[in-house]
Amino acid sequence: MAGDQGDALARGGRLKLSWLVQLHWWAILGQVLMVGLAELWTEFDLPIPNIMALLTAEVIGNLVLRSWAHTAHVTESMMATVMVLDAAFLTLLLDLTGGASNPYSTLYLVNVALAAVLLPGRWSWVLMAVTLLGFAALFVHEWLGGPAQHVRFGMSPEQLLVAHVRASWVALALAAVFIVYFVRRVALALADRERELQQTRAQADRREKLASLATLAAGAAHELSTPLSTITVVARELQRNLAATASEGVARDLKLIRDQVGRCREILDRMAGHAGEQVGEPLRSQTVAEWVAAALDGLQGKERVVQEGAPGIEAVPLVGPPRALADALRGLLKNALHASGPEGTVTMRLESTAAGLVRVSVIDRGCGMSPEVLARVGEPFFTTKGPGEGMGLGLFLTRALAEQLCGQFHITSSPEQGTEARLELPAARADERSNA
Q1: Which of 113, 184, 361, 399 is the most exposed place for a label (fewest CB within 10 A)?
Q2: Selection from 6-15, 145-154, 185-194, 334-343 with the highest mean pLDDT
Q3: Could you give the count of Cα atoms lying within 13 Å of 422 in the half-sphere of its Cβ?
Q4: Where a domain ends, among 261, 280, 299?
Q5: Residue 41 · residue 150 · CB < 8 Å
Protein backbone atom coordinates (compact mmCIF):
# COMPACT_ATOMS: atom_id res chain seq x y z
CA MET A 1 0.00 0.00 0.00
CA ALA A 2 2.79 2.43 0.93
CA GLY A 3 4.59 1.65 -2.34
CA ASP A 4 1.49 2.35 -4.45
CA GLN A 5 0.84 5.64 -2.67
CA GLY A 6 4.52 6.59 -3.00
CA ASP A 7 4.40 5.99 -6.77
CA ALA A 8 1.22 8.04 -7.07
CA LEU A 9 2.79 10.91 -5.08
CA ALA A 10 5.91 10.80 -7.26
CA ARG A 11 3.77 10.99 -10.41
CA GLY A 12 1.91 13.92 -8.86
CA GLY A 13 5.16 15.77 -8.23
CA ARG A 14 6.34 15.21 -11.79
CA LEU A 15 2.96 16.39 -13.04
CA LYS A 16 3.30 19.66 -11.12
CA LEU A 17 6.80 20.17 -12.50
CA SER A 18 5.60 19.53 -16.06
CA TRP A 19 3.04 22.31 -15.64
CA LEU A 20 5.78 24.68 -14.52
CA VAL A 21 7.81 23.76 -17.60
CA GLN A 22 4.85 24.58 -19.84
CA LEU A 23 4.32 27.88 -18.04
CA HIS A 24 8.00 28.72 -18.54
CA TRP A 25 7.69 28.30 -22.32
CA TRP A 26 4.69 30.61 -22.42
CA ALA A 27 6.46 33.10 -20.17
CA ILE A 28 9.58 33.09 -22.35
CA LEU A 29 7.43 33.62 -25.44
CA GLY A 30 5.68 36.54 -23.75
CA GLN A 31 9.00 38.06 -22.70
CA VAL A 32 10.38 37.84 -26.24
CA LEU A 33 7.25 39.49 -27.64
CA MET A 34 7.35 42.19 -24.95
CA VAL A 35 10.97 43.04 -25.69
CA GLY A 36 10.40 42.90 -29.46
CA LEU A 37 7.38 45.19 -29.38
CA ALA A 38 9.14 47.64 -27.07
CA GLU A 39 12.13 47.74 -29.42
CA LEU A 40 10.09 48.14 -32.62
CA TRP A 41 7.17 50.38 -31.57
CA THR A 42 8.60 52.59 -28.83
CA GLU A 43 11.51 54.90 -28.36
CA PHE A 44 12.96 52.78 -25.54
CA ASP A 45 16.66 51.96 -25.85
CA LEU A 46 16.87 48.55 -24.13
CA PRO A 47 20.08 46.63 -23.27
CA ILE A 48 19.34 43.93 -25.86
CA PRO A 49 22.57 41.87 -25.39
CA ASN A 50 21.95 41.54 -21.64
CA ILE A 51 18.28 40.69 -22.18
CA MET A 52 19.10 38.06 -24.83
CA ALA A 53 21.67 36.48 -22.52
CA LEU A 54 19.04 36.27 -19.77
CA LEU A 55 16.43 34.77 -22.12
CA THR A 56 18.97 32.25 -23.43
CA ALA A 57 19.73 31.18 -19.87
CA GLU A 58 15.98 30.74 -19.28
CA VAL A 59 15.62 28.54 -22.38
CA ILE A 60 18.58 26.35 -21.43
CA GLY A 61 17.35 26.05 -17.86
CA ASN A 62 13.86 25.06 -19.00
CA LEU A 63 15.23 22.41 -21.37
CA VAL A 64 17.21 20.92 -18.50
CA LEU A 65 14.16 21.12 -16.24
CA ARG A 66 11.96 19.37 -18.83
CA SER A 67 14.43 16.52 -19.21
CA TRP A 68 14.79 16.16 -15.45
CA ALA A 69 11.02 16.27 -14.85
CA HIS A 70 10.44 12.91 -16.60
CA THR A 71 12.38 10.82 -14.09
CA ALA A 72 13.03 13.00 -11.03
CA HIS A 73 11.62 12.36 -7.60
CA VAL A 74 10.12 15.82 -7.18
CA THR A 75 9.83 17.09 -3.63
CA GLU A 76 8.13 20.19 -2.26
CA SER A 77 11.47 21.88 -1.62
CA MET A 78 12.55 21.25 -5.23
CA MET A 79 9.34 22.80 -6.55
CA ALA A 80 9.81 25.80 -4.25
CA THR A 81 13.42 26.21 -5.43
CA VAL A 82 12.34 26.27 -9.08
CA MET A 83 9.68 28.88 -8.36
CA VAL A 84 12.13 31.03 -6.37
CA LEU A 85 14.45 30.96 -9.39
CA ASP A 86 11.50 32.01 -11.56
CA ALA A 87 10.96 35.03 -9.30
CA ALA A 88 14.69 35.84 -9.51
CA PHE A 89 14.71 35.67 -13.34
CA LEU A 90 11.64 37.91 -13.52
CA THR A 91 13.29 40.40 -11.15
CA LEU A 92 16.40 40.55 -13.36
CA LEU A 93 14.31 40.98 -16.51
CA LEU A 94 12.27 43.79 -14.93
CA ASP A 95 15.48 45.48 -13.76
CA LEU A 96 16.79 45.43 -17.34
CA THR A 97 13.54 46.75 -18.85
CA GLY A 98 12.48 49.63 -16.62
CA GLY A 99 12.93 48.53 -13.02
CA ALA A 100 10.19 49.05 -10.43
CA SER A 101 8.21 51.28 -12.80
CA ASN A 102 7.87 48.49 -15.37
CA PRO A 103 4.12 47.65 -15.48
CA TYR A 104 4.92 44.01 -16.24
CA SER A 105 5.80 43.58 -12.56
CA THR A 106 2.15 42.42 -12.36
CA LEU A 107 3.46 39.05 -13.59
CA TYR A 108 4.82 38.46 -10.09
CA LEU A 109 1.22 37.55 -9.20
CA VAL A 110 1.28 34.58 -11.59
CA ASN A 111 4.12 32.99 -9.64
CA VAL A 112 2.43 33.68 -6.30
CA ALA A 113 -0.89 32.23 -7.50
CA LEU A 114 0.78 29.07 -8.79
CA ALA A 115 2.66 28.67 -5.52
CA ALA A 116 -0.64 28.80 -3.64
CA VAL A 117 -1.95 25.92 -5.80
CA LEU A 118 1.15 23.76 -6.15
CA LEU A 119 2.93 24.18 -2.82
CA PRO A 120 1.91 23.63 0.81
CA GLY A 121 1.22 26.62 3.02
CA ARG A 122 4.69 27.23 4.40
CA TRP A 123 6.34 27.22 0.97
CA SER A 124 3.61 29.48 -0.47
CA TRP A 125 4.39 32.08 2.20
CA VAL A 126 8.11 31.73 1.58
CA LEU A 127 7.63 32.36 -2.14
CA MET A 128 5.42 35.36 -1.44
CA ALA A 129 8.15 36.79 0.80
CA VAL A 130 10.79 36.16 -1.88
CA THR A 131 8.59 37.92 -4.46
CA LEU A 132 8.15 40.96 -2.24
CA LEU A 133 11.89 41.07 -1.57
CA GLY A 134 12.61 40.87 -5.30
CA PHE A 135 10.24 43.75 -6.05
CA ALA A 136 11.75 45.75 -3.18
CA ALA A 137 15.21 45.08 -4.62
CA LEU A 138 14.16 46.94 -7.77
CA PHE A 139 13.40 50.05 -5.69
CA VAL A 140 16.73 49.74 -3.86
CA HIS A 141 18.60 49.41 -7.15
CA GLU A 142 16.88 52.50 -8.52
CA TRP A 143 17.64 54.40 -5.32
CA LEU A 144 21.33 53.50 -5.67
CA GLY A 145 21.72 53.90 -9.42
CA GLY A 146 18.85 56.08 -10.56
CA PRO A 147 15.42 55.24 -12.01
CA ALA A 148 15.40 52.83 -14.96
CA GLN A 149 19.18 53.04 -15.23
CA HIS A 150 19.36 50.34 -17.95
CA VAL A 151 16.82 52.04 -20.27
CA ARG A 152 17.06 55.24 -22.30
CA PHE A 153 13.76 56.95 -23.09
CA GLY A 154 13.24 58.97 -26.30
CA MET A 155 9.69 60.03 -25.47
CA SER A 156 8.02 63.06 -23.93
CA PRO A 157 6.46 62.75 -20.43
CA GLU A 158 2.97 62.70 -21.97
CA GLN A 159 3.91 59.93 -24.42
CA LEU A 160 5.63 58.03 -21.65
CA LEU A 161 2.49 58.19 -19.48
CA VAL A 162 0.28 56.90 -22.30
CA ALA A 163 2.73 54.06 -23.04
CA HIS A 164 2.82 53.14 -19.35
CA VAL A 165 -0.98 52.99 -19.11
CA ARG A 166 -1.25 50.80 -22.22
CA ALA A 167 1.51 48.50 -21.02
CA SER A 168 -0.20 48.23 -17.62
CA TRP A 169 -3.40 47.03 -19.30
CA VAL A 170 -1.47 44.47 -21.37
CA ALA A 171 0.42 43.28 -18.29
CA LEU A 172 -2.80 42.89 -16.31
CA ALA A 173 -4.42 40.99 -19.18
CA LEU A 174 -1.44 38.64 -19.47
CA ALA A 175 -1.36 38.00 -15.73
CA ALA A 176 -5.10 37.31 -15.65
CA VAL A 177 -4.91 34.89 -18.59
CA PHE A 178 -1.95 33.02 -17.10
CA ILE A 179 -3.55 32.77 -13.67
CA VAL A 180 -6.97 31.61 -14.87
CA TYR A 181 -5.69 29.19 -17.52
CA PHE A 182 -2.84 27.52 -15.70
CA VAL A 183 -4.38 27.51 -12.25
CA ARG A 184 -7.52 25.86 -13.63
CA ARG A 185 -5.48 23.31 -15.58
CA VAL A 186 -3.32 22.55 -12.57
CA ALA A 187 -6.38 22.28 -10.33
CA LEU A 188 -7.99 19.77 -12.73
CA ALA A 189 -4.76 17.78 -12.93
CA LEU A 190 -4.49 17.70 -9.16
CA ALA A 191 -8.11 16.55 -8.93
CA ASP A 192 -7.26 13.68 -11.29
CA ARG A 193 -4.29 12.77 -9.11
CA GLU A 194 -6.49 12.82 -6.02
CA ARG A 195 -8.91 10.42 -7.70
CA GLU A 196 -5.99 8.19 -8.61
CA LEU A 197 -4.83 8.20 -4.99
CA GLN A 198 -8.33 7.33 -3.81
CA GLN A 199 -8.47 4.42 -6.25
CA THR A 200 -5.07 3.23 -5.02
CA ARG A 201 -6.24 3.41 -1.42
CA ALA A 202 -9.45 1.55 -2.31
CA GLN A 203 -7.49 -1.22 -4.07
CA ALA A 204 -5.12 -1.54 -1.12
CA ASP A 205 -8.09 -1.66 1.25
CA ARG A 206 -9.66 -4.47 -0.79
CA ARG A 207 -6.37 -6.39 -0.76
CA GLU A 208 -6.19 -6.03 3.01
CA LYS A 209 -9.79 -7.21 3.34
CA LEU A 210 -9.01 -10.19 1.11
CA ALA A 211 -6.00 -11.17 3.21
CA SER A 212 -8.01 -10.70 6.41
CA LEU A 213 -10.82 -12.81 4.99
CA ALA A 214 -8.44 -15.62 4.13
CA THR A 215 -6.96 -15.51 7.63
CA LEU A 216 -10.38 -15.37 9.25
CA ALA A 217 -11.75 -18.23 7.17
CA ALA A 218 -8.72 -20.43 7.78
CA GLY A 219 -8.84 -19.72 11.50
CA ALA A 220 -12.59 -20.35 11.71
CA ALA A 221 -12.27 -23.60 9.77
CA HIS A 222 -9.49 -24.76 12.10
CA GLU A 223 -11.25 -23.75 15.33
CA LEU A 224 -14.67 -25.10 14.34
CA SER A 225 -13.52 -28.36 12.78
CA THR A 226 -13.32 -30.17 16.14
CA PRO A 227 -16.75 -29.15 17.54
CA LEU A 228 -18.40 -29.75 14.17
CA SER A 229 -16.84 -33.22 13.97
CA THR A 230 -18.01 -33.94 17.50
CA ILE A 231 -21.56 -32.85 16.68
CA THR A 232 -21.52 -35.02 13.55
CA VAL A 233 -20.33 -38.11 15.45
CA VAL A 234 -22.83 -37.63 18.29
CA ALA A 235 -25.71 -37.05 15.88
CA ARG A 236 -24.79 -40.18 13.91
CA GLU A 237 -24.60 -42.27 17.10
CA LEU A 238 -27.94 -40.97 18.32
CA GLN A 239 -29.52 -41.64 14.97
CA ARG A 240 -28.22 -45.19 14.94
CA ASN A 241 -29.10 -45.97 18.57
CA LEU A 242 -32.58 -44.48 18.34
CA ALA A 243 -33.37 -45.84 14.91
CA ALA A 244 -35.82 -48.42 16.27
CA THR A 245 -37.38 -46.48 19.15
CA ALA A 246 -37.30 -42.81 18.15
CA SER A 247 -40.32 -41.11 16.71
CA GLU A 248 -40.35 -39.88 13.16
CA GLY A 249 -40.00 -36.28 14.34
CA VAL A 250 -36.86 -37.03 16.37
CA ALA A 251 -35.33 -38.88 13.42
CA ARG A 252 -36.00 -35.86 11.19
CA ASP A 253 -34.41 -33.53 13.73
CA LEU A 254 -31.28 -35.68 13.95
CA LYS A 255 -31.00 -35.78 10.17
CA LEU A 256 -31.47 -31.99 10.07
CA ILE A 257 -28.63 -31.54 12.58
CA ARG A 258 -26.27 -33.62 10.44
CA ASP A 259 -27.30 -31.76 7.28
CA GLN A 260 -26.76 -28.36 8.89
CA VAL A 261 -23.36 -29.41 10.26
CA GLY A 262 -22.40 -30.49 6.75
CA ARG A 263 -23.57 -27.14 5.41
CA CYS A 264 -21.44 -25.34 8.00
CA ARG A 265 -18.41 -27.33 6.85
CA GLU A 266 -19.15 -26.52 3.23
CA ILE A 267 -19.43 -22.78 3.94
CA LEU A 268 -16.13 -22.74 5.83
CA ASP A 269 -14.41 -24.69 3.05
CA ARG A 270 -15.72 -22.28 0.43
CA MET A 271 -14.64 -19.23 2.38
CA ALA A 272 -11.15 -20.60 2.97
CA GLY A 273 -10.80 -21.89 -0.58
CA HIS A 274 -12.10 -18.83 -2.45
CA ALA A 275 -10.22 -16.32 -0.31
CA GLY A 276 -6.96 -18.25 -0.27
CA GLU A 277 -6.76 -19.38 -3.86
CA GLN A 278 -6.08 -15.87 -5.18
CA VAL A 279 -3.21 -15.48 -2.75
CA GLY A 280 -1.45 -18.77 -3.34
CA GLU A 281 -2.56 -20.16 -6.72
CA PRO A 282 0.22 -19.95 -9.35
CA LEU A 283 -0.25 -18.04 -12.60
CA ARG A 284 -0.63 -19.99 -15.81
CA SER A 285 -1.26 -19.16 -19.46
CA GLN A 286 -4.56 -20.26 -21.00
CA THR A 287 -6.69 -19.21 -23.95
CA VAL A 288 -10.01 -17.47 -23.66
CA ALA A 289 -11.70 -20.66 -24.95
CA GLU A 290 -10.12 -22.70 -22.14
CA TRP A 291 -11.16 -20.11 -19.60
CA VAL A 292 -14.77 -20.11 -20.78
CA ALA A 293 -14.89 -23.92 -20.91
CA ALA A 294 -13.63 -24.17 -17.33
CA ALA A 295 -16.20 -21.60 -16.18
CA LEU A 296 -19.08 -23.45 -17.84
CA ASP A 297 -17.98 -26.82 -16.50
CA GLY A 298 -20.44 -27.90 -13.82
CA LEU A 299 -22.59 -24.75 -14.15
CA GLN A 300 -26.28 -25.51 -13.77
CA GLY A 301 -28.29 -23.96 -16.57
CA LYS A 302 -25.34 -23.45 -18.89
CA GLU A 303 -27.58 -24.35 -21.85
CA ARG A 304 -29.27 -20.97 -21.27
CA VAL A 305 -25.99 -19.08 -21.79
CA VAL A 306 -25.80 -17.53 -25.27
CA GLN A 307 -22.20 -16.88 -26.33
CA GLU A 308 -21.23 -14.02 -28.62
CA GLY A 309 -17.64 -13.38 -29.60
CA ALA A 310 -15.46 -11.39 -31.96
CA PRO A 311 -13.61 -13.48 -34.56
CA GLY A 312 -10.43 -15.00 -33.12
CA ILE A 313 -11.14 -13.93 -29.58
CA GLU A 314 -11.22 -17.50 -28.26
CA ALA A 315 -7.55 -18.02 -29.20
CA VAL A 316 -6.33 -14.95 -27.30
CA PRO A 317 -4.13 -16.00 -24.34
CA LEU A 318 -4.53 -14.85 -20.75
CA VAL A 319 -2.18 -15.26 -17.79
CA GLY A 320 -3.65 -15.71 -14.34
CA PRO A 321 -4.66 -18.20 -11.63
CA PRO A 322 -6.80 -20.67 -13.66
CA ARG A 323 -9.16 -21.81 -10.91
CA ALA A 324 -9.75 -18.29 -9.60
CA LEU A 325 -10.44 -17.00 -13.12
CA ALA A 326 -12.86 -19.84 -13.84
CA ASP A 327 -14.64 -19.32 -10.52
CA ALA A 328 -14.94 -15.58 -11.15
CA LEU A 329 -16.59 -16.03 -14.55
CA ARG A 330 -18.73 -18.92 -13.29
CA GLY A 331 -19.91 -16.71 -10.43
CA LEU A 332 -20.95 -13.94 -12.84
CA LEU A 333 -22.85 -16.43 -15.01
CA LYS A 334 -24.48 -18.01 -11.99
CA ASN A 335 -25.67 -14.63 -10.72
CA ALA A 336 -27.03 -13.73 -14.15
CA LEU A 337 -28.88 -17.04 -14.50
CA HIS A 338 -30.37 -16.60 -11.03
CA ALA A 339 -31.55 -13.06 -11.89
CA SER A 340 -33.00 -14.13 -15.24
CA GLY A 341 -35.31 -16.74 -13.76
CA PRO A 342 -35.68 -20.44 -14.66
CA GLU A 343 -36.56 -19.76 -18.31
CA GLY A 344 -34.50 -16.65 -19.08
CA THR A 345 -31.33 -16.59 -21.12
CA VAL A 346 -28.03 -14.91 -20.40
CA THR A 347 -25.68 -13.35 -22.95
CA MET A 348 -21.93 -13.79 -22.59
CA ARG A 349 -20.14 -11.46 -25.00
CA LEU A 350 -16.38 -11.81 -25.62
CA GLU A 351 -14.39 -9.05 -27.30
CA SER A 352 -11.07 -7.27 -27.26
CA THR A 353 -10.54 -3.56 -26.58
CA ALA A 354 -8.22 -1.02 -28.14
CA ALA A 355 -6.23 -0.98 -24.88
CA GLY A 356 -5.23 -4.64 -25.30
CA LEU A 357 -7.79 -6.01 -22.85
CA VAL A 358 -10.02 -9.05 -23.17
CA ARG A 359 -13.53 -8.07 -22.13
CA VAL A 360 -16.24 -10.53 -21.16
CA SER A 361 -19.68 -9.05 -20.62
CA VAL A 362 -22.36 -11.09 -18.85
CA ILE A 363 -25.81 -9.61 -19.50
CA ASP A 364 -29.00 -10.78 -17.85
CA ARG A 365 -32.61 -9.77 -18.37
CA GLY A 366 -33.65 -9.74 -14.75
CA CYS A 367 -35.26 -7.05 -12.65
CA GLY A 368 -32.02 -5.05 -12.30
CA MET A 369 -30.83 -3.17 -9.24
CA SER A 370 -31.65 0.16 -7.70
CA PRO A 371 -28.88 2.79 -7.42
CA GLU A 372 -28.68 2.17 -3.66
CA VAL A 373 -28.12 -1.58 -4.12
CA LEU A 374 -25.74 -1.04 -7.04
CA ALA A 375 -23.59 1.26 -4.88
CA ARG A 376 -23.02 -1.59 -2.39
CA VAL A 377 -22.45 -4.39 -4.90
CA GLY A 378 -19.01 -5.87 -4.35
CA GLU A 379 -18.87 -5.24 -0.62
CA PRO A 380 -17.90 -8.32 1.40
CA PHE A 381 -20.89 -10.29 2.70
CA PHE A 382 -23.45 -8.05 0.93
CA THR A 383 -25.91 -10.06 -1.17
CA THR A 384 -29.42 -9.62 -2.57
CA LYS A 385 -30.03 -13.38 -2.56
CA GLY A 386 -32.08 -15.15 0.04
CA PRO A 387 -30.61 -16.86 3.11
CA GLY A 388 -28.49 -19.86 2.20
CA GLU A 389 -28.17 -18.87 -1.48
CA GLY A 390 -24.96 -16.86 -1.29
CA MET A 391 -22.40 -15.32 1.04
CA GLY A 392 -21.85 -12.03 -0.78
CA LEU A 393 -18.19 -12.77 -1.54
CA GLY A 394 -18.24 -13.59 -5.25
CA LEU A 395 -18.23 -10.08 -6.69
CA PHE A 396 -15.80 -8.84 -4.05
CA LEU A 397 -13.32 -11.59 -4.96
CA THR A 398 -13.89 -11.01 -8.68
CA ARG A 399 -13.05 -7.32 -8.35
CA ALA A 400 -9.97 -8.12 -6.24
CA LEU A 401 -8.81 -10.67 -8.83
CA ALA A 402 -9.25 -8.20 -11.70
CA GLU A 403 -7.21 -5.54 -9.90
CA GLN A 404 -4.54 -8.10 -8.99
CA LEU A 405 -4.14 -8.89 -12.72
CA CYS A 406 -4.15 -5.18 -13.70
CA GLY A 407 -7.65 -5.46 -15.13
CA GLN A 408 -11.01 -3.87 -14.34
CA PHE A 409 -14.45 -4.96 -13.19
CA HIS A 410 -17.62 -2.91 -13.69
CA ILE A 411 -21.32 -3.48 -13.10
CA THR A 412 -24.12 -1.41 -14.65
CA SER A 413 -27.75 -1.96 -13.82
CA SER A 414 -31.12 -0.22 -13.84
CA PRO A 415 -34.43 -1.31 -12.35
CA GLU A 416 -36.43 -3.44 -14.80
CA GLN A 417 -33.58 -3.18 -17.35
CA GLY A 418 -31.33 -6.06 -16.30
CA THR A 419 -27.68 -6.05 -15.29
CA GLU A 420 -24.39 -6.13 -17.19
CA ALA A 421 -21.18 -7.26 -15.49
CA ARG A 422 -17.96 -6.52 -17.42
CA LEU A 423 -14.68 -8.19 -16.56
CA GLU A 424 -11.64 -6.83 -18.42
CA LEU A 425 -8.29 -8.60 -18.25
CA PRO A 426 -5.04 -7.85 -20.10
CA ALA A 427 -4.12 -10.25 -22.88
CA ALA A 428 -0.82 -12.04 -22.31
CA ARG A 429 2.31 -10.88 -24.12
CA ALA A 430 4.71 -13.34 -25.71
CA ASP A 431 7.20 -13.12 -22.84
CA GLU A 432 4.43 -13.69 -20.31
CA ARG A 433 3.19 -16.77 -22.16
CA SER A 434 6.70 -18.24 -22.19
CA ASN A 435 7.22 -17.63 -18.47
CA ALA A 436 3.81 -18.76 -17.29
Answers
A1: 184
A2: 334-343
A3: 13
A4: 280
A5: no
